[in-house]
Amino acid sequence: CSFRSCLAFFAPIAALVPQMGAQSVCVLLPVRLCSVIRAWASEIPADAVMSVLQLLQGFLRQESPKAVRLAALSPLRAMLDRFSDSEAWSQVQGTLIDSCLALLTVVQNPEVQWRCLNL
Predict the structure, then answer these.
(1) pLDDT given for residue 13 in this prediction
(2) C-alpha angle 98/102/104, rounded to 5°?
(3) Rounded CA gap, 76 and 60, in Å?
(4) What's the pLDDT score for residue 27?
(5) Least crowded by CB within 10 Å, which of 10, 15, 65, 92?
(6) What is the pLDDT of residue 50?
(7) How far are the Cα atoms of 32, 50, 53 from residue 90, in angstroms, in the given order?
(8) What is the chain's percent helix, strand, coil content, to nearest 5?
(9) Is there a contact between 61 and 70 (Cβ–Cβ < 8 Å)?
(10) Would you state the pLDDT for residue 72?
(11) What is the pLDDT of residues 60-98, one digit of tens each?
């Protein structure tokens, strides 16, 4: 399975994330997708960076369950480490920062708060 073919399956799932309840078993799917993105961060083609950032941006929306929002931090960090010089960041940076700051209001653990601030 190539990353591009998997990415085509990720988008419809991401669109459903805000409709998932926090206690729904469905939340596990986007959380696992975040793990896949993090694992493949070094192999993501440069022309797919914007698509992946938009996907993670969707996961970080306030309407998304907290578990999904927290899971999106790790691949986002991996993407920043790998593609920090990509033009795609300039288009999503403001929204991602706002999403991370909003997440700070719902997490209590200092380590998790640091993960939000360390992006």
Answers:
(1) 82
(2) 120
(3) 10
(4) 86
(5) 15
(6) 92
(7) 27, 10, 11
(8) 75, 0, 25
(9) no
(10) 94
(11) 989 999 999 999 999 999 999 999 888 988 889 889 889
- Output the six-digit token pair for 28: 């596990």
C-alpha to C-alpha distance for 23 and 67, rounded to whole angstroms: 10
User: What single DSSP character describes residue 61?
Assistant: S
pLDDT of res. 78: 93
| Residue 80 and residue 97 in contact, taking contact as beta carbons nearer than 8 Å | no
Task: Look at residue 38 and tell me whether its pLDDT is greater than 90.
Answer: yes
Angle CA(47)–CA(48)–CA(50) in degrees, nearest 5? 100
Q: Which residues contact 46 (CB under 8 A, 6 or more apart)?
A: 83, 86
Tokens of 34: 């975040």
Buried residues in 48-77 as b, exposed as e (16+ CB within 10 A): bbbbbbbbbbbbbbeebbebbbbbbbbbbe
Rounded CA separation 94/99 (Å)? 9
Q: Look up residue 86 and give its amino acid.
A: S
